[in-house]
Write a structure and sequence with these properties.
mainly alpha, globular, Growth Hormone, Chain: A, 433 residues
């Protein structure tokens, strides 16, 4: 652990650290909003453009594929240019990509714009997790990284409420207008308030690093330092590569982590993408179908927050396994109930378990990899997950096109979420728990 890390770990949390945390929560709210707008718009869009389920699955997957590329290729750049600059870039990509969707006139253009929006979302998820991990003391890090991702379902819920109010009146494109403008509006807030990562400044040492560290220390009410700690060679900095993720002591853990990300994302994005449409297929009104997705994300918020707390108490990997395995059981027995209130409750409980569990994987990643390759490690873990997230909605589209019911689809996707729980237990590496 370098000196900057020790200083952060040994001092109380300052107002600046709280503001960094809250900004990262806000960034994940935007992610949740920008991801879910296509799911909320799907029933109205499918009717307006006469889109078949298989094609709709391709549209869902295009955004998720963009997230995979963003996480794997854009996010690692933050290990060289800085976390703050990457977050600002992601806001612009997400915002303009979502806003431009308002003017899409064909399926091809819609797919392309969902891919572009996904680039920013994928890189943002990795970078906000890294920024949080590097500003919060180690004793609170598991909880903080998980809690940051509670912003994701909050954004999804707010988008659902807005979508239910405006889509029936103004059409599917209205929610993209609102989400795009809301995203772009935050660029000024981030530019004004968000500092660069102290660990990044200390290890990568861009021009003026010492002055920037001392300026941030003054905002944290900490004494200044006279020289940069823990000299890092240029050779070490250049090791922020994918190959470093498979160094001997991390190789097996990285493989299991990628399996956990892949399978959990496959299930999660099947659920995120198809719950409103499948609920609509059961005969629910457009508003109630949208609210089914909203209940799912509301449950996710409570799952994420409680998972972060329980992980601090009982161990990260064990708690993640319990959440994901419990979700698999709920999905297998989903069809037992037919009462609409119970079904909505089940949606909430499934959201509680699957999102609460998979978000813990970000905390696992943040603890598994050192600063020099942290954004690369988190980004490629998310990228592996996003590949699963591409597969999940597409497979869902095929299954829906075959006429499989909501209950049968849930039973199929219970298997990968159980695999994700088991794989998490296998991520054995010092410091993860």
């Amino acid at each position: 652990m370098n000196d900057i890390r020790k200083i952060i770990d040994q001092n109380k949390i300052s107002g600046l650290q709280v503001s960094v945390f809250l900004i990262c929560v806000l960034m994940n709210m935007l992610d949740g909003m920008d991801v879910m707008v296509i799911a909320y718009a799907a029933p109205s869009l499918a009717d307006a453009w006469s889109i078949a389920p298989g094609t709709l699955g391709t549209i869902f997957s295009a955004g998720v594929f963009g997230m995979a590329v963003g996480a794997m290729l854009l996010a690692p750049i933050a290990d060289r240019i800085g976390r703050r600059r990457m977050i600002l870039t992601c806001i612009l990509v997400m915002g303009f990509g979502t806003l431009a969707t308002v003017y899409a006139k064909s399926i091809g253009v819609l797919i392309a714009l969902r891919f572009i929006s996904g680039l920013g979302i994928g890189a943002m998820l990795a970078t906000s997790a890294t920024m949080t991990a590097e500003y919060i003391p180690g004793r609170y890090r598991n909880f903080a990284v998980s809690a940051v991702f509670a912003g994701y379902p909050i954004g999804a819920v707010l988008a659902g409420i807005v979508a239910a109010a405006i889509i029936p009146e103004y059409g599917w494109s209205s929610i993209f207008l609102v989400a795009g403008l809301a995203t772009l509006a935050t660029v000024f807030l981030v530019a004004l308030l968000l500092p660069e990562s102290l660990e990044f400044l200390s290890k990568v040492r861009p021009t003026g690093a010492l002055d920037k560290i001392n300026h941030i220390f003054s905002r944290m009410k900490l004494p200044s330092i006279t020289e940069l700690p823990s000299e890092v060679s240029e050779e070490k900095i250049k090791q922020a590569s994918v190959a470093e993720l498979f160094a001997s002591e991390r190789k097996v853990a990285t493989i299991w982590l990628w399996i956990a990300f892949f399978t959990s994302f496959a299930t999660l994005y099947f659920l995120i993408s198809w719950i409103p449409k499948l609920a609509s297929n059961t005969g629910l009104s457009l508003e109630l179908a949208i609210y089914a997705g909203t209940v799912f994300n509301l449950g996710a918020f409570f799952g994420i927050v409680t998972q972060g707390y329980l992980s601090h108490k009982f161990g990260l990997r064990r708690v993640i396994f319990a959440y994901l395995a419990g979700t698999a059981v709920l999905m297998v027995f989903f069809g037992v109930w037919s009462d609409p209130v119970v079904i909505l409750t089940m949606f909430g409980l499934i959201g509680f378990g699957v999102q609460g569990g998979f978000v813990g994987l970000y905390a696992v990643s943040a603890r598994l990899y050192p600063t020099e390759i942290r954004n690369t490690g988190i980004g490629w873990g998310i990228g592996a997950g996003r590949i699963g997230a591409v597969v999940g909605p597409k497979v869902g589209g095929i299954l829906v096109g075959m006429g499989l019911t909501l209950t049968t689809n849930f039973m199929v996707f219970a298997l990968p979420v159980m695999i994700a729980g088991v794989a998490t237990l296998m991520v054995s590496h010092r410091g993860v728990d």
